[in-house]
## 1
Amino acid sequence: MDRMFHVIEAQQFDRELMGEIFSVTKEMEEVVSRYGSSILNRRIMATLFYEPSTRTRLSFESAMIRLGGNVVTTESAREFSSAAKGETLEDTIRIVEGYADVIVMRHFESGAARRAADVASVPILNAGDGPGQHPTQALLDVYTIKKEIGRLDGITVAMVGDLANGRTVRSLAYLLARYDDVKLFFVAPEVVRMKQDIKEYLDRHGVHFEEKEDLIEVAQQSDVIYQTRIQRERFGDRIADYESARGKYIVDSNTMEALPEAGRVLHPLPRIDEIAPEVDGDPRAAYFRQAHNGIYIRMALLRMVLEA
Ligand code: NCD
């Protein structure tokens, strides 16, 4: 394999590369159970986050530490880094690459990770670029589906919620398109339907998808319900639109009754109220296990981009 360098968008991963990442990820599960490793000893990862994060930043940082590496970090970079003084993203990257061997970046603008990669001499890992993409989340989502359902070919996934602004569903659609006989249902409030670019990509790649309104009917026919949060921060002052979208599709005990016994519910988290707490105790609620898989995937990615 050519050495993987930047991780910017989901389209850069084919089945073969994902297979390789997932086998390193499996190894990483064992590394964690042995309390870590020193393979990235003396390597430094910088996390540069211009938008809020809990899981993504902490799991990347924990992943680096589990591999023996070190972490330098700026959270709230929009307020606290030199961006607040007017420094361009490109200049910031030129500086930070002198301090770290890899940069994990979350930004509020779609395309920011690509811009950073264009000037960076160290790997840039996109931890979410506005409403653009979130490829490391989508990799951990696919890994979770494989682990929970046992297969990827032939699966039916219902993507629910904010499909227009949710970067995780966008990246996930690109990744799932690599597998055979995948079927996607899109269940979204009118104002946040899946965008045309993804639908055209799926058409071009022969992936069957349907836009649906009835979540119960869709649940009956799905292996996975991938629920998402309505992305309040992308609505600006369109409060009426936000209110019309929020609360439209809730996964609750009725949805769980419709979902097959072997089905699963995933969510990138954080959730607001789109999965009722009563669902948490159901063994098919896989979202907390999914979040834990983030550490293994991120260890695998760090190892693959940094190991010489
Ligand atoms: C997601 C994100 O930031 O896009 N969170 C995450 O990284 N797990 C989903 C969200 O914020 O709704």
## 2
Amino acid sequence: MKKRILITGGAGFLGSHLCERLLNEGNEIICLDNLFTGRKENIAHLMGNPNFEFMRHDITEPVTVEVDQIYNLACPASPPHYQYNAIKTIKTSVMGAINVLGLARRVRARVFQASTSEIYGDPEVHPQPESYWGHVNTIGPRSCYDEGKRVAETLFFDYHRQNGVDIRVVRIFNTYGPRMLPDDGRVVSNFIVQALRGQDLTIYGDGSQTRSFCYVDDLISGFLKLMETENFTGPVNIGNPGEFTMLELAELVLQKVGGKSKITFRPLPADDPKQRQPDITLARQKLGWEPKIPLSEGLDHTIAYFSQLLNNPASQPRPMKMPVRGMALN
Ligand code: NAD
Ligand code: UDP
């Protein structure tokens, strides 16, 4: 049945893929975004569709729309972007959650929260199941994001218990694919863009830290399955359990792109988690979901996207002012 769906952060990397998928399924989409890290270009191909509407709005302010479902994705996700204005980041997570939950309660919409593996912090349990409570610094440069997302989860469950709001919470592990920003600062886009430009790939630390990378199409399928599943709120991990060191990732990108780039080593940012891998047992059991696209294949699609983008200067996003990395207080 056709639904009217609000997607906050809909002009961003993940949001634009979600808008596209839900629109293709015959729904009406309201894409809300303040265009901090999102781009109109990400949704330009959807603008002519009568079922698609763009609303320039900041989710720290209340919003009133009649909708059946809400996906709350508004929040910068890459460390340089969320550290650019740390106070704004935490306001976006906390006030954004309050605003979408208030709306969901008023219009009786099912509401989805894009939470994150960052709520596990620098984990002492590996891989991370949903039952793990995490190991998070409250006062470090990553805290505005990690703690903001943790409070957002708390708010979701309190609105659910106290007001009966119909919630779905997903914990997203590192995801990559077309429409990441080339100056995003995240590792996959950094390495690919550096390799395509013939620059050296910058590994922070010694490259032994691990991450598990999920291709965007797999992730969006997980979102839709969770939103369709009755009597299950989550939180549920969605990610690809394939675990790689940053050195392995750099070597794979170099092997695929070719060229003259080498690897250079830079200081490790404060509080950088040493390891991360989702335990997706719950997603398999409750949603019948698991990722299908291996890293090698997903990297091919992503390299093709960036190579086209870099060859067409007119389509390139304006570089964002890069922040000074936050100073560690511990
Ligand atoms: P992104 O930066 O591309 O998208 C975030 C979007 O939110 C952007 O379009 C931005 O303009 C918008 N936004 C930011 N602050 C806003 C505000 N105050 N009001 C309205 N819009 C605002 O990042 P993404 O990778 O697409 O991430 C989307 C969501 O998924 C985020 O909530 C992020 O925390 C979560 N997430 C992503 C990953 C990942 O690997 N991509 C991992 C974990 C969690
Ligand atoms: N990283 C790196 N080189 C880069 C960008 C990131 O070695 O150019 C490292 C970063 O220190 C971290 C990992 O890659 O250990 C993943 O970083 P990203 O910012 O993509 O995600 P997050 O740390 O939030 O998982």
